[in-house]
Amino acid sequence: VLFPLADYTKPEVRKLAKKFGLPTAETPDSQEICFVPDTINNFLAKYIKQKKGNIVCALSDSAQDCALSESAQTVGRHRGLAFYTIGQRKGIGLSGGPYWVLDRDFKKNNLVVTKDEKDLLKKELFFKNANWLSGKEPKFPVKVTAKIRYRHEAAPATIYKIQDTRYKIQFSRPQRAITPGQSVVFYRGAELLGGGIIC
User: Which CATH number covers residue 95?
Assistant: First the structure.
């Protein structure tokens, strides 16, 4: 597959668009989904039934596990777990903050928040649906650099196979807001080894 703009950076494409008088030359970058004319939350609200629930604040030192414990205090109501993401700070609807979204507990329909941003840091993640670009798995454990989101700086890590279709990534330093359902991709030097879905 050949992409016509593959060798150009975004600033170069904007410069060309301006040169040819295209209206997209001055269009600001989208912060949401580019083909959705409204905000992502308004778009989702049209298609997803909103199930309101409690917002609970982690009280324990082991805040990362608070969704599974009773050591949390109800501090408000949420409008549906689909409208929040791990690490989110704005738009939670609570006073007395700041608060960050720490977890979405789908079993209890609780949105778990924390007042300590450090609670978002984790050194490991689990992933499934691995796609190895070479067509076969590497020999484990394998040292890589891994990215957990588009603008995330690739971080040194080691991948371990823990089950037939499940893997663990151990980072050398904690990473912020590892989010289940998002993609993780891993590299060995400049070579893209593959990716998977964080679970």
Answer: 2.30.30.280
d(CA 83, CA 32): 13
Please say which residue of 57, 88, 115 terminates a domain: 115
Please give the residue range of the domain that contains residue 132: 120-198
The span from the CA of 179 to the CA of 197, in Å, is 10
Question: With 80 as the cut, is the pLDDT of residue 70 above it?
Answer: no
- Mean pLDDT lowest for which of 18-27, 86-95, 101-110, 117-126? 18-27
Q: Write the DSSP assignment of 72-118 as a string of letters.
A: EEEEEEES-GGG--TT--TTS--SS---EEEEEETTTTEEEEES-GG
Task: Report residue 101: phi and psi, to 5°.
Answer: -75, 120
**Overall pTM surpassing 0.85 (yes/no):** no
